[in-house]
Write a structure and sequence with these properties.
CATH class of the largest domain: Alpha Beta
Structural class: alpha+beta
CATH superfamily of the largest domain: FAD/NAD(P)-binding domain
Number of helices: 13
Oligomer: single chain
CATH topology of the largest domain: FAD/NAD(P)-binding domain
Number of domains: 2
Strand content: 15-25%
């Protein structure tokens, strides 16, 4: 990738269009507005819905209610801290609407979306428009339409980029109601007693029951792919349907979402052979998410197969699991380190559409797009985040990965540059703590 070029400048009084009011779009709008830049936040929902959204609300969470690990000792935890240091709207609202989830940051979906929407609506420099955008902007703008971009804009992007968009299949886990569970067959605990120590409901499985569950899972009927999807079946490795995981080996689930490590069944005093964890999905604890149980099974099959799990014999589903097709750009070919389209640098791209994966990562790209565009509008020459930060790790993935076979990625320590002097620290825990401290110092200086 060539060095960052100076972008175009426009009058700062002219509102900047941001297309899409998901996590990335709302974060980008907030960052620009907080820097004194007027914004037009454009959202097509509810006038035109996507296959997976159910409301017209901003920042609607469709896959899970978890923003994953919250310790700065893990990469996504560090990314959260960096975003908080720069005044992130998404992380602020997530903390205000957090619910118990062990060592993770999880939220009440409805309250979280309401919190984001309220702050967006009340900001004097943000104007909300409900309409569908089908043309690629010519002037400074941010596209944050997500992996379910409307067909019109998707086609416009394909024509401009001169290639078909990449795609993969993402999955959603089921949610069941608390009053339909057999609580006498479940036990409350978090792995290694993280969080409050009893944040999850756990369904213990014996070896015999686990084997029976795998048999039924592999034999169950699945929703067929549509004809236009069959030639391009590719799942995101970080969110595989459980039946696909089971096909890779009978023990795969037991070392994945059903791993019993860090859990002791109080009824036996022993670690179970396998465990299904349920995570609270709302403040009232009326709904519980089957952790890691994203699936493409038919709805009737989900009821039948999951009823094998202790405590779920009569489970009532508030939402069934599903799989949907996502699209994203070949970022190493089309994006520069400031998230601008190489062949139209007035336009930035943010969110999952860039090729990052995860709620936090998507919001982080919105934050970076908003801040660097704001600097350009002031006539400054913005720079990407410092290399030792988690944000820079995302940029590294998007711009330095080989274009051939490019795949979405969550933030990992492997993407974060470690200064030479910190590599000498032999303890991984101490080294990462030092990296996190260095990264936060660097991001604060970058954000000044």
């Amino acid at each position: 990738m060539s060095e960052v070029q100076q972008g175009p400048t426009v009058s700062i009084e002219e509102p900047i269009p941001i297309v899409g009011a998901g996590l990335a779009g709302c974060e980008a709008a907030w960052q620009l507005a907080e820097q004194g830049v007027p914004v037009r936040l454009i959202e097509m929902r509810p006038l035109r819905q996507t296959p997976v959204h159910t409301t017209g609300d901003f920042a609607e969470l469709v896959c899970s209610n978890s923003l994953r690990g919250d310790s700065p000792g893990n990469a996504v935890g560090l990314l959260k801290r960096e975003m908080e240091a720069l005044g992130s709207l998404i992380i602020r609202c997530a903390r205000e609407t957090a619910i118990p989830a062990g060592g993770a940051l999880a939220v009440d979906r409805t309250l979280f979306s309401e919190s984001v929407g309220k702050r967006i609506a009340e900001h004097p420099l943000i104007r909300v428009e409900r309409t569908e955008v089908v043309d690629l902007p010519e002037r400074p703008a941010i596209l944050a339409t997500g992996p379910l971009t409307s067909p019109g804009l998707h086609q416009a992007l394909q024509m401009f980029l001169g290639e078909q968009a990449l795609s993969f299949f993402d999955a959603v886990a089921p949610v069941v109601t608390a009053d339909s569970l057999g609580h006498d067959r479940l036990f409350r605990a978090s792995r290694y007693d993280k969080g409050e120590g009893a944040d999850y409901l756990n369904a213990p499985l014996s070896q015999e029951l686990y084997e029976a569950f795998i048999d039924e899972l592999l034999a169950a009927e699945r929703v067929e792919f549509k004809h236009f999807e069959k030639d391009d079946i590719c799942f995101f490795e970080g969110c595989l349907p459980i039946e696909v995981m089971a096909e890779r080996g009978r023990e795969t689930l037991r070392f994945g979402p059903m791993k019993p490590v860090g859990l002791i069944d109080p009824a036996t005093g022993q670690r179970p052979w396998a465990v299904v964890q349920l995570r609270q999905d709302d403040v009232a604890a009326d709904h519980w998410n089957l952790v890691g149980f994203q699936t493409k099974l038919k709805q009737a099959e989900q009821k039948r197969v999951f009823s094998i799990i202790p405590g779920l014999e009569n489970a009532r589903f508030a939402r069934f699991g599903m799989v949907h097709r996502n699209t994203y750009l070949n970022a190493p070919t089309h994006l520069d380190p400031l998230l601008r389209l190489v062949n139209r640098p007035a336009v930035r791209v943010a969110g999952q559409m860039t090729g990052v994966e995860g709620y936090v990562e998507s919001a982080a790209t919105g934050l970076m797009a908003g801040r660097t565009l704001s600097a350009e509008l002031r006539g400054e020459r913005p720079e990407p985040p410092p290399p030792e930060t988690a944000m820079a790790g995302l940029i590294r993935h998007l711009t330095k990965s080989p274009p051939k076979g490019f795949q979405p990625s969550n933030i990992t320590w492997g993407l974060i540059s470690c200064p030479e002097e910190l590599r000498r620290i032999r303890s991984k825990r101490d080294r990462r703590a030092a990296q996190a401290e260095r990264a936060l110092q660097a991001i604060c200086q970058w954000g000044v």
